Amino acid sequence: MGREFELKFQADAGVISAIREKYGDFTPISMETTYYDTFDLKLFMHRWTLRRRMENGVSVCTFKRPHKDGGRGEWEVEAPNIMEGVMSLCQKGADWELMRIASGGLMEVCGARFTRLAGTLEIPGGKVELALDQGVLIGRGKEIPLAEVEVELKEGPDEAAIAFAKALAEEFGLVPEEKSKFLRAMTLAMA
Question: Less Cβ crowding at N or C end of the chain, within 10 Å?
Fold first, then answer.
């Protein structure tokens, strides 16, 4: 299991362009995400997230759940479909409860389609991935714009990522985004 610790900020095209200009080398990744749940939303009730994301044409399945220290537990595997992904995720250490729940059937509940510009930065005390995302969130046939900046800790203590993210937010006037892409897309799907 990996532990995910990230900070998200609301953005717009101008802010994303300015950050890209300052930090330079970013790798573009085309992402098409589908989030899954049971017909009675058992995963949502557990605060678990299950997704299949096409990343530049590669199918990656991911399971996330809250972590006791405020981050999230995260498992990822390459798999051709969500059910094979669930099996592989459980074999890699995700809760076997996920397999039990998924075996009752899964449905697509919402999604996202965006381009991520990703770059790894050395910062005092560690390393972060700086991601600039632009596209749309999708729910029940509706779409809303998506533009955000993510700072994800890759190495070092949480405090190093927090300090970098705080300085970035101050410099570019960023406002924290408290909700994940999944929660915002799910809100759209339930509207």
Answer: C
